[in-house]
Amino acid sequence: MVYFLSDLHLGAKYFENPREKELAVVRFLDSIAADAEEVYLLGDVLDYWYEYRTVVPRGYVRFFAALARLTDAGVKVTWMTGNHDVWLFDYLRTEIGIRVLKGYQEVEIKGTRFLLSHGDDVGQQPWTYRALLSLFHNRLCQRLYASVHPRITYAIAHGWSHKSRTSHSRQQKVKASVAQCYGNLVDFARAYGAEHPAVKHFVMGHLHMAKQETIDEAGRTLTILGDWISKNTYATFDGSEIMLHTFKA
What is the mean pLDDT of residues 70-75? Predict the structure, then answer.
């Protein structure tokens, strides 16, 4: 079985009990160990991560250990970065054996072609957001950011995330734009499928909504994975059908 999940946002300061959130994910990963062939993490797995050359941030030990148990057992784990964990470089690849990918990717899974993306790098996005992502990916900006003491950068990053998630006005704007963003993803998937007929399934995260539908007459599907902030949703693919599920933590 192949598993997909995204938007865990582990370590977020707005969680009442961050450790319990991490343990819920660990229980899920341990529960699928017996039949998992591949696991795809489609971004925003961590609420914030900046990976320095010689040191790594504290925390996430139990989660990383659960991933290590999977890879040690021969399960292929792929982590596609999102907008919160964009600064993931080679630590998890070298220490745990996880494949780290950036940007949307076409992959073949059990003989079926998929297009996988966190969801923030496809479709129509505001130019301000695209400009921000460009800064996040710029190597010079990354080096300048790394030169600032982590006490400062972590406080800024977590404060920004907390304000974005808990601000009432921000939440109202997010709710108003989700339908539009989803429509943009549907349009992107239809256009991409028309140009790349071998692709049968599109799987994305980012929108924090769990939704799946057939998007064209060819039977292509778009699956939005939801999140692990409140939904604990994930998807599976058995070689013939992709399905959404909820984990009872």
Answer: 98
